[in-house]
Every structure is written in structure tokens, then in C-alpha cells.
## 1
Amino acid sequence: MIIEKLYLKAKTIEQAIYEANEHVDSFRYIAGGTDVLVNKFQGNEESSYLIDISGIEELKNTFLIGNSLAIGALVRLDDLKKNKHILQHFPVLLEAAHSVASPMIRKTATLGGNLLCENRCSFYNQSEWWREAVGYCLKCDGEICIATGGKKNCFSKFVSDTAVALISMNASIEVIENSSPSIVPLESIYTGDGVNPRKFNKTAIIKSIHIPINEGFKSVYKKLRQRESLEFSSLTTAVTLNKAGKIKIVLGGVDPKPVVVEGTTKDDKNELIKQAVKMARIVDNDVYSREYRKEMISVYLNRSFEELN
Ligand SMILES: Cc1cc2nc3c(=O)[nH]c(=O)nc-3n(C[C@H](O)[C@H](O)[C@H](O)COP(=O)(O)OP(=O)(O)OC[C@H]3O[C@@H](n4cnc5c(N)ncnc54)[C@H](O)[C@@H]3O)c2cc1C
């Protein structure tokens, strides 16, 4: 009789990747588990084998490397504030992390897990019987996007709040894939396709998140949600200005991927804002209407530019 594996607590990155490759169709890594397990209970996550990476020490280190700070992927959101470099150089990351979920979840949730948390949609994040009753959408192997009344694309929302702040500061991630490391810009891993929102090999592991340290970042972060706790984003904005006068606007919660607009202090702010509003493919898949969220992009970005001055 073959006994199917259900759970493994990996001790090293190599062991985790080896096991993942051995069970490529049926596994999922689990770090804090605050996203994976909720999706599993809702029947949106089908992997039968969980490879727990939370005990891998190498993924917990935070250190300076060249001109960047490398933050271990397993650092818990609530622990980010304990690092003096993050406190001094990247307060926007702390603000974003603090806006995630609730105090208890932040004590379990990791930074790496947050970057890969699953997209959300009011027609997808429901119980199995609810989804069956309404009719399965594209993201649950259905034929059409219900939120748009029948489109053939999925517009589930990108909701990682820390990614919005990190991308605004040009963060990159160190990825280990079959034991070879590579460093890629964080924003490059998001596809814009709500069904498969990341072009990230399932067996790959994020080792650390790198943020340039000498850029003199000034950032403003805002998040729209129904309650000040527990709610996923209806709109997240980060606007970051570096000491060379470069501006980066990043939006979350309004498109299947982060919306990114870059400019400089010489550009017309209204044009940059217009560009961001135009790029956001908002549909009615949230508690707030599409029109309201679209309007709020301009409101938040205008306020952010005022605060940056
Ligand atoms: C009630 C509630 C409210 C929430 N609100 C928010 C919110 O407001 N904003 C928000 O951004 N999130 C929110 N979340 C989602 C989630 O809690 C966070 O995104 C959290 O940071 C995920 O981290 P984790 O360590 O628990 O990830 P896990 O659940 O362990 O993993 C998430 C995904 O990342 C993968 N993964 C994890 N670590 C790695 C790694 N190092 N390398 C490769 N793959 C990895 C897993 O395989 C999985 O696919 C909420 C969740 C709940 C339950």
C-alpha cells in the first residue's frame, strides 16, 4: 500500500526543493500558512502535500549586502519593526506590513508569503457551496469571469500590501530554483493574469527580499478598506520619491497585478496620476464599486503628492 505524504517540515532549502520536485503536481510550500490554509479550507487550494519551510534557518536572516538590505523571506510581518535599518530607511514597508490583516495574523504571516499571497475576488473567495450555487468562475475552472458578466479573462485583485511598498522602492527578490540562486526585480514576477497571477516556478523558493539602502526614499502609503483591520485591500497606493528625483507610483487592489507608473519630479503629476488610473483594470469584484475605487485612485495619489512636498 502506498501511503501518500501529507506534510513535511523541511530543514533545508535543498530538501524542500527536492521534495517539491518529487511531488510537483500535488504540493504547496507553507510558511506562516495564513493564506494557504484559508484557501485550503475554502476549497480553493487543492494541494494534498504541504511542505513546511518555516523551520529553514537560512530564510530568516536579515543583513546588509552591497548597497542593499536583504530581508529573509521568513521574517514575520510583525518582526520587521525590530530591524533598525528598516526603521531608519524603509518606514513605508512597516506601514504596509502593519496594514495587513490583524495583529495575530501579522505575528504568523511572513514577508515572502505576503508577496505570493493569492489574488482575491468576491466571486472566488467564497465557500465551495456558494461558488457552486453561483456558478464556478474562470479561477475555479469555470468558463467565464462572473464579476464582468462573462469576459474570458480573470480580473481577481492583486492584494499583497507589502509588495506595493517594496516595488515602489525598486525591491528585488533572491530566488532559489533547483539550487541555483538568481535575483529578479519583484515586479517582474506578476503576470496580470488573474488565474495564474505569478510567473514564478512553483518549486522555487524566495530566499530574501533586497531593497536599495542609499536612495534616500521618501514614501507615502495609503490603503482603502472597509474596516481598519482584517480587510484585504480595495485600493493600496504607494508613491516613492528618491534623492535623484525619480518617482514611482504603485497601486494594489485594482488590477490582477501591481500597477506601476514611473516618472520624475519634472513630470506633470496630473499626467502621472491619469496614467495610473487608466492602467488599473478595475472590475466590480470588491465591496466598493468600480467607480468609487477608480475615483479614489486620484484622491489618494493627489494627497500623496501633497504629503511628499
Ligand atoms: C483574515 C485575513 C486577512 C488578510 N488580510 C491581508 C491584507 O490585508 N493584506 C495582505 O497583503 N494579505 C492579507 N492576508 C493574507 C495573508 O495573511 C498574508 O498575505 C500573509 O503575509 C501571507 O504570509 P504567510 O507566511 O502566511 O504565507 P503562506 O500562507 O504560508 O503562503 C502564501 C503563498 O506563498 C508561498 N510561499 C510562502 N513563502 C514562500 C517562500 N519563501 N518561497 C516560495 N513560496 C513561498 C506559499 O506556497 C503560498 O503559495 C490576510 C489573510 C487573512 C486570513
Note: The longest strand covers residues 205-212.
## 2
Amino acid sequence: MTTASTPRTSPATSSQTDPLQLIDVDHVRFYVGNAKQATYFYASCFGFQFEQMADLTTGSRDAAHALMTQGNIRLVLTTGLSAEHPSMKHIAHYGDGVKDVAFTVFDATAAYDRAIKNGAESAYEPVETKDEHGTVVSAGIKTYGEVIHSFVSRHGEYELANVKKGGRFMPLFEKVKSFALNDHNRKHPCGLKFVDHLVGNVGLGKMNHWVAWYENVLEFKLFKHFDDKDISTEYSALMSKVMASGNNLIKMPINEPAHGKRKSQVQEYLDYTEQVPGVQHLALRTDDELHSIAELRRRGVDFLTIPEAYYGQVWERVNTMLKAHGHDVVKEDHEKVKDLGILVDSDDEGYLLQLFTKPLQDRPTLFFEIICRRGSQSFGKGNFKALFESLEIEQERRGNL
Ligand SMILES: [Fe+2]
């Protein structure tokens, strides 16, 4: 059994009366050292369109913001223009990374009020930005580390449906008139569709604290497809639980380090963020893993190298499980999967293909996962062993094992 990519936006229904009804990932804001240069990295390596910009030329006096889009993914790259801007302090301590995982909601003020009532700490109170095109209301709450969740409600031309069609993102943003890579990317798409999940790394012993936070504050649930036993093998040395919004639209696994034979990858992350938790990876969904990985590799994306031995066992493991549950076996060409170094895993609902990039910046912190689901709603647990062997090779190269 295979399934096509699920539509990602929650329909406007009677649940509009629920203030924490999340419509979509509005955008993910990265604080970066140099937004202008980062646009080239995300455009050239990952095929994002550099669509809109807010900077000195558009009236943004304190920071430059670049909107990068692909499918229903919106990244905002933000760089402050002075040492006083919060982004520059953030970068000094933690390097480039995710600051804000923003959710589109029907009423940002109502969502914020409800979250605060549920015990959230405020990051910033509701602000309304308005011009002749419409209104955007944003309000933020603090989650783990220095990461925040903004609630964003959009009106007039700024409604999300318009933004998805290339309409204006927010006041002060203007269309980028010429950027040669945009044409190239239209002709050579990478096929990334939407944010499948976002993973946070938190400190030792803190996973359950943040699980409870997502339950209480954002009214998330432990994801039902996930067996909630902690994942911890002698290799994996991490524990993880997946939290999902009420409609399962937004999934946020939370990792904590665990003691293993070697240093946990989660601990290595924390060692480069002054032990401050943060977003470890964004999983970006594709309908065609082979095409996406081939195109990303052609563009020079650096992926984790999967040990050759992995492919000696994977088909037996994955296809046996699929047959046992009455599903078709993996339809992708096995040789191509191996040549492209892609990971495969299956569960009672189907299978998935996934691959992880190396860190996106010099610090071994944030990375991307490229994932394709064929029925499976899990996260590649069967790949942990192979993955950790691969990660350990990289940690060893960095002298951090
Ligand atoms: Fe993931």
C-alpha cells in the first residue's frame, strides 16, 4: 500500500472555535550571521526560491529578513544590523540556528492568551503590523532553550492561501526582483513539499518535562502511531518522544541524551550551544525520495554516509515487515536506493525512505532530514543502529566522541 503526500493545511472548520487549532507551520525563522549570503546556500544547495526580502531598502531598519520558499515550506533568514539586535547575541552564543517555529492560527491573540493560561511564558505580547495590503498579528511564547513559538494570524492579502501563491508575506517584505538561482530552481526542482516534523534536543532528564509542556501548553498529544517506549539501544544513546498537535498536522519529537558506550549526538549538540536546548533537525517531506536525493546530491549537499553493510540486511528487514502486514514491498529501485545512500524503514502501516544531511553550519547543531512516507507514520526507528554508526564516524572526525 502506498499513499500520496497528505495535504498539509488544516481546513477551516468548526474547530476555528479552538484557539490552539494550528493551521500550518507558518514559517521557521533561522537566526543567521549573514542572511544575504545564506540565501545562496539554501537556494543553491536545497532549491529554495528566494522570494521576498525585508531590509533597509524596504524600511526594515534593525534587521534583514529573507523569505525562502519551496512547496509549503517557508524559511525566514534573519540577521540583525547591529550588535544590539537579539539575533546577533543569539548567534554569538549558539551559532546559526532555529529561533522561531511559528504556527498559523485563526486568531493569534486568542491562541497566545490560551497558551499563557495553560502555563506558557511570554516571549512577546501580540503585535499587529498593518499596511494597505492587510494585517498580520503575531504573538510569541517561549519553549525549550531560546526557541519560541509565534502564533500568526493573517488577514487581507496576507492570508496564508495568498502567501502560498506567492503573495505578500508580511508588511515591509518586498518581492525579490532578480535572483538568478530562482530560474534555475524552477527548472530543476528538488521536490521538497512541507515540514514533516521538527525535532528538539533538550538536556539530560528533561524530555518528560517538555513532553508535559507540549501537552499542557499547546494541548499536543503523544503521537499515537509512535510506540511510546523510550528508544535507547547501546548504539542510539538517546531517548525520544513525539508530540503532535490535535490534528496531527504538526509533529515535534523531543530528544534527550542517554548514557551509551559513546557520547550521545544530542550531548554533542548541547556542547556547542552552551548546554542550551534547541532545534536539532527539520524533516522536509518529498513525494519522490530518489529524485530529491539525486538532485540534492547533484547540487553538492553533504549527506551522512550510510555503511555499505546496511544494504546487506535492509531489504529483508523492511520487506518482511511489509508482507507480514499485507503491504506491497518497497517499490523504489533497490540499487538506486543503495547508490544514493538512502535509508529505508517499515512498520505495520507501510514504509518510509529518509536521509540526513550533515550539519548546515560549522557547529555540529542543526541539520535537515529528507523524508518520503509510503504509509509509515513513524520516524525510522529501525535505522537507528545504522545511523548511529554513521554519526559516530562523523563525531570521531570532529574529535567529539
Ligand atoms: Fe526526523
Note: Confidence is low (pLDDT under 50) at residues 1-7.
